[in-house]
TrEMBL record:
InterPro entries membership: PABS, SAM-dependent_MTases_sf
Any one GO MF annotation of this record: transferase activity
Name by which UniProt lists this protein: Spermidine synthase
Domain of life of the native organism: Bacteria
Family: Belongs to the spermidine/spermine synthase family.
Amino acid sequence: MDERVFTERGELVLRRRAGHFELISNGVFLMDTRSGESERILVRAALAAAPPGPRLLIGGLGVGFSLAEAVHTDAAEIVVVEIEPAVVRWHHGVLRQFSEGALDDPRVRVVTADLAAWFTGTSDRFDVICLDVDNGPGWTVFDHNTGLYRAAGLAMLRDHLRPGGVLAVWSASAEPSFEATLTRTIGPVRTVRVPVGRGEPDVVYVASCAG
């Protein structure tokens, strides 16, 4: 079963294979529902460095593993920014089991918007920002997303963190130059490598601002 939608950003496909789902954007594989361990670790590692009862922002809903992890924590508020309305709709249907019905949690607010554009129009600040809108800094879904991982984009994200806040970034591979930029722009970085079945480990970068 494939469900296809066409947006101003191109074709988005939700594909079912052997009981699992895959998200594919313009022919590029984004993620699937087979594991989700590194997406859960993204949230877990970020919140471990955050104050109790944090305001949490998740950039990218995807197949829902990050959000499912977040609602099992003490987060006081969880804002999810997802660019594709179809992805949000699928989480009210076939993907609901993977986000564990988290869209119904009263702490959760979903914003359907481009993350960078949304940040430029809001003064909201968070204790934790978890960024998972691409396959990593070196493999973005859309070309304009590259700006999020450069010094100016990271500085914008920093400006939306409260003092002592945490920025966590998911990547499908190690990105040493990005890690160096993250350290210079945000603060000390903890790197978490998550082994996968084949290929390089997934990597979660957790940067903490000065208090």
